[in-house]
Specification:
Strand content: 35-45%
Strand order of the largest sheet: 2-1-33-32-31
Shape: globular
Structural class: mainly beta
Number of strands: 33
Radius of gyration: 24 Å
């Protein structure tokens, strides 16, 4: 039985994520976030949770992008380091960047609104003729680089190829070429009798996205993670069995720092599920596995980090052992805290916080949807048990957030151990609408404001979330809808 579990689990880790399209367009809404989560130490001020504005993403024109609704499903969400930009990637290979509106003295309530800044096609579908394998264009991850000048840089990756994009603005155009006419055609040198000095003329603001680097042909399996190093000169990309280290200036070669592929693939027992660099120490990184373990590696110890520096694993409670134990213990996401002291991991039912100085067990464990433990059999049959939920920290590492089903997402306050369940739904997307906490009824009599666990819609799921680096603004992706929530003081 255990061999069957391992085989099913590992096989599914090599497959694409299972998602279902339930809407026809992206939708961006800006809500308020219960800031009382972050201020339990003192009486919270009077606050309301309201919708600021709803965006209909009609810029995805069918004429420009004749793709199915399935390609519009959001596959990753990421704020940049200042929080002024928000990037989303979808299954159609597109990257959409939103820019935060400048705060107005007359319209202070608009401080959390994001408008479309740029949209471009990052990846195209490909076909590997040597392996007879189709390579999807789906954007698996987006990571921003710190802004060094007027331009923005971000990394985007699909299953095989990582691209470095430059996003810049242009509001002037050069005129008065000597060797070209005004339409850009080369002039006959015999007709050039005078020398002109080119000048810059004002023009409508145009945002350009250009690929500066393409990092390809280094991964045999599907890339599941990319992470920018704190030295900002290198980054790593991780697939199911290997982790590669890249230099931003070198595209034709990478350095393999982790390789867990066995000599005989029949002996494969676990795969890499996520990896991330330490936020401050450029030599340190962690990666998680499908066995529910986390390995901390130090690149100073050896060139190939096949021997970990620290190994984090929680002993399993024999009383909770079941047919699905190893599947639900697989870690789908791992994140360092902003301080670098803690690691947060997400498995199917829980979020755990680990102290880097304590390897034998997590210091905090939060139940995300423990009421689904009795539903694991049906979740296994419809493949939902293999869904990969992400988790994020708030700017001060005091609150963590992760997604669930029925478009629910959970927030846990680490100081008070209080939690709240919120719902991202189209019904609550009207401007200034009030967002109320939700509760799930497990058994017995159901109250009016509760929802039965048997009524949950498992095709609606919050897999991808992001938190503003310094403010209480979050982005939540629900299939092909994007919601932005913010706290609001009355």
């Amino acid at each position: 039985m255990e061999e069957d579990i391992d085989t099913r689990k590992i096989n599914n880790s090599f497959l694409r994520d299972h998602s279902y399209a339930t809407e026809e367009h992206f939708r961006l809404a800006s809500f308020s976030l219960p800031s009382s989560l972050l201020h339990w130490s003192k009486p919270p001020p009077s606050r309301t949770w309201t919708v600021v504005m709803t965006y209909q993403q009609d810029y995805l024109s069918p004429c420009l992008y004749p793709l199915s609704a399935l390609s519009d499903i959001i596959s990753t969400v990421e704020f940049n380091h200042t929080g002024e930009l928000l990037a989303t990637g979808d299954k159609g290979g597109r990257v959409v960047i939103f820019q935060r509106e400048q705060e107005s003295k007359n319209q202070v309530h608009r401080r959390g609104e994001y408008n479309v800044y740029s949209t471009f096609q990052s990846h195209e579908p490909e076909f590997d003729y040597l392996k007879s394998l189709e390579i999807e264009e789906k954007i698996n991850k987006i990571r921003w680089l710190p802004q060094q000048n007027a331009a923005y840089f971000l990394l985007s990756t699909n299953d095989k190829t990582v691209k470095l994009w430059k996003v810049s603005e242009r509001d002037k155009r050069p005129e008065g070429y000597n060797l070209k006419d005004e339409e850009g055609r080369l002039r006959d040198p015999a007709t050039i009798t005078t020398l002109r000095v080119p000048v810059l003329r004002p023009m409508d603001l145009m945002v350009e996205a250009t690929p500066r680097r393409v990092f390809a042909n280094a991964h045999t399996y599907h890339i599941n993670s990319i992470s920018v190093n704190s030295d900002y000169e290198t980054y790593m990309s991780a697939d199911d069995l290997r982790i590669n280290l890249w230099n931003f200036e070198i595209t034709n070669q990478s350095f393999n720092i982790v390789d867990i592929k066995p000599a005989n693939m029949e002996e494969l027992t676990e795969v890499i599920t996520a990896a991330e660099f330490h936020p401050h120490h450029c030599n340190t990184f962690v990666y998680s596995s499908s066995k529910g373990t986390i390995r901390l590696c130090d690149m100073r110890a050896s060139a190939l980090c096949d021997r970990h520096t620290k190994f984090f694993e929680e002993p399993e409670d024999p009383s909770n052992r079941s047919f699905f134990s190893e599947i639900i213990s697989s870690i789908s996401d791992v994140k360092f805290s902003h301080s670098g002291r803690y690691i947060m991991t997400r498995d199917y039912l829980t979020v755990k916080v680990w102290d880097l100085n304590m390897e034998n067990r997590p210091i905090e464990t939060y139940q995300v949807h423990d009421y689904l433990r009795s539903k694991l059999c049906s979740l296994y049959e419809n493949d939902c048990i293999f869904d990969k939920f992400e988790c994020v920290w708030n700017g001060s590492d005091s609150v963590i957030m992760t997604g669930s089903y029925n478009n629910f997402f959970r927030m846990f306050d680490r100081n008070t151990k209080r939690d709240v369940t919120l719902e991202a739904s189209r019904e609550n997307s009207k401007p200034r609408a009030i967002l109320k906490p939700r509760k799930v009824c497990v058994g017995g009599k159901r109250r009016k404001d509760e929802i039965s666990v048997d009524s949950l819609d498992f095709s609606k799921k919050i897999l991808h979330t992001a938190w503003h680096p310094s403010e209480n603004i979050i982005a939540v992706a629900a299939t092909n809808n994007l919601y932005i929530f913010q706290d609001k003081v009355n």
